[in-house]
């Protein structure tokens, strides 16, 4: 099922405090641990995205952005209305898309020192946890840093866009095979199959691997399955797979090897043609 | 949580679509005279910024947040010094993305 060489992000990062321990299917080939399937560790967002986030289940007070449970977020914006009290510091963060109330609990000297360095009118980078208080979304912040290199502002918003696209592509990439009018099943950017994604209402949705396959393997399998009746006995050439799925050749070959080991595909006339078993 | 008064990322080219609205723009300061600052926008066009004088001294690059007067000028509310080095190209690309395909993430 899970090959021994897989990067097991759960054990490696379980102490980090950013990863939810609920997710055990972290057999993602990409070593980037922040991109788990069900709960992301820390995502960059804009206040506008937060304002549109909805609540996930009832027990968890988590929010859902783009179909992904959101625990921790990072924002970049300007600080206003900083109000220092004994146990906490409140302020409003305005990132140009909206304003959100933030609260930073101050327990140690380090916290006080950190908050002293930021003033009203300064651009800051915050890391925090989304909370809802009396119906109003707020941020419980655990880190505030002044922005010194202002490329960070461009970077953050581009990061938000990137993350948004990434989760959207992942969401569409793991939708069960759903051919629509013969168009290519997996298109990286535009959605060809499902229109609106409602993952929060379908708990099984986030399981990207239905039967233990990695998502790349699944893409290859789906493609072979979809084209099995159209191809002749020679099967599908790996170039066609690489071109249609827009995946690099080495990923394709690796997937085919895994699938071949599992007995799901076999090579036909040469090592470059494969068919579904 | 209040998203009623956003400041849209713009370059000179996009100013014309936001006349009368609140925007933010980064520009390279060319010269400052009287109550007016002339700058070069991220897409290499001239911008004129009026309004209350900026907190002196201005660095090479500044961000202006304010209301758009016309397709070449902004009435500043907030000035932020962005230092002497910044990636104008990335910011320009961000303006295009934030007003195009990903507008829903911003306004």
From TrEMBL, chain A:
Signal peptide location: none
Highest taxon in the source lineage: Eukaryota
Region spans: Disordered: 174-206
Limits of the Replication protein A C-terminal domain: 181-272
SUPFAM superfamilies in alphabetical order: Nucleic acid-binding proteins, Winged helix' DNA-binding domain
InterPro entries, alphabetized: NA-bd_OB-fold, NA-bd_OB_tRNA, RFA2-like, Rfa2/RPA32, RPA_C, WH-like_DNA-bd_sf, WH_DNA-bd_sf
Location relative to the cell: Nucleus
Polar residues composition-biased segments: 177-204
GO biological process: DNA replication; double-strand break repair via homologous recombination; nucleotide-excision repair
GO cellular component terms, semicolon-separated: chromosome, telomeric region; DNA replication factor A complex; site of double-strand break
Sequence ranges assigned to domain OB in this UniProt record: 73-146
Pfam families membership: RPA_C, tRNA_anti-codon
The family this protein is said to belong to: Belongs to the replication factor A protein 2 family.
Biological role: Component of the replication protein A complex (RPA) required for DNA recombination, repair and replication. The activity of RPA is mediated by single-stranded DNA binding and protein interactions. Required fo cell division in meristems. Involved in the maintenance of transcriptional epigenetic gene silencing (TGS) at specific loci (including some transposons) by regulating histone H3 acetylation, 'Lys-4' and 'Lys-9' methylation.
Protein name according to UniProt: Replication protein A 32 kDa subunit A
Source organism of this protein record: Arachis duranensis
From TrEMBL, chain B:
An annotated GO BP: DNA replication
Stored SUPFAM superfamilies: Nucleic acid-binding proteins
Main location: nucleus
Alphabetically ordered keywords of this record: Nucleus
Subcellular location field: Nucleus
InterPro entries assigned to the protein according to its UniProt record, in alphabetical order: NA-bd_OB-fold, Rfa2
CDD domains assigned to the protein according to its UniProt record, in alphabetical order: RPA3
GO molecular function: DNA binding
Pfam family, one: Rep_fac-A_3
GO cellular component, one term: nuclear lumen
Keyword Lipid metabolism applies: no
Protein family: Belongs to the replication factor A protein 3 family.
Name by which UniProt lists this protein: Replication protein A 14 kDa subunit B
Species, as recorded: Arachis duranensis
Lineage: Eukaryota, Viridiplantae, Streptophyta, Embryophyta, Tracheophyta
């Amino acid at each position: 099922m899970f090959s021994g060489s897989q990067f097991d992000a759960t054990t490696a990062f379980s102490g980090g405090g950013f990863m939810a321990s609920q997710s055990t299917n972290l057999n993602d080939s990409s070593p980037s641990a922040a991109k788990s399937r069900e709960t992301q560790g820390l995502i960059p967002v804009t206040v506008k995205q937060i304002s549109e986030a909805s609540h996930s289940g009832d027990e968890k007070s988590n929010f859902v952005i783009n179909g992904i449970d959101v625990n921790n977020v990072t924002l970049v914006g300007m600080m206003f209305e900083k109000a220092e009290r004994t146990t906490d510091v409140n302020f409003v963060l305005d990132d140009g898309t909206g304003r959100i109330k933030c609260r930073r609990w101050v327990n140690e000297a380090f916290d006080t020192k950190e908050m002293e360095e930021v003033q009203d009118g300064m651009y800051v980078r915050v890391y925090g946890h989304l909370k809802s208080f009396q119906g109003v979304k707020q941020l419980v912040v655990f880190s505030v840093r002044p922005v010194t290199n202002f490329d960070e502002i461009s970077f953050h918003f581009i990061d938000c866009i990137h993350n948004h696209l990434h989760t959207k592509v992942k969401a569409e990439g793991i939708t069960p095979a759903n051919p629509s009018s013969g168009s290519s099943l997996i298109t990286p950017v535009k959605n060809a199959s499902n229109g609106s994604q409602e993952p929060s209402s379908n708990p099984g949705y986030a399981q990207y691997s239905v039967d233990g396959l990695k998502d790349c393997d699944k893409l290859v399998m789906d493609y072979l399955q979809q084209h099995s009746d159209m191809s002749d006995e020679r099967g599908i050439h790996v170039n066609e797979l690489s071109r249609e799925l827009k995946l690099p050749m080495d990923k394709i070959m690796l997937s085919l090897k895994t699938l071949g080991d599992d007995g799901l595909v076999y090579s036909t006339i040469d090592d470059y043609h494969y068919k579904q078993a | 949580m209040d998203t009623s008064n956003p400041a849209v990322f713009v370059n000179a080219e996009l100013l014309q679509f936001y006349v009368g609205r609140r925007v933010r723009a980064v520009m390279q300061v060319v010269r400052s005279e009287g109550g007016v600052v002339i700058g070069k926008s991220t897409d290499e066009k001239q911008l004129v910024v009026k309004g209350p004088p900026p907190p002196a001294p201005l660095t090479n690059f500044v961000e202006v947040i304010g209301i758009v007067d016309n397709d070449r000028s902004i009435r500043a509310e907030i000035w932020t010094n962005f230092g002497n080095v910044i990636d104008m190209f990335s910011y320009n690309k961000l303006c295009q993305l934030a007003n195009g395909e990903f507008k829903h993430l911003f306004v």
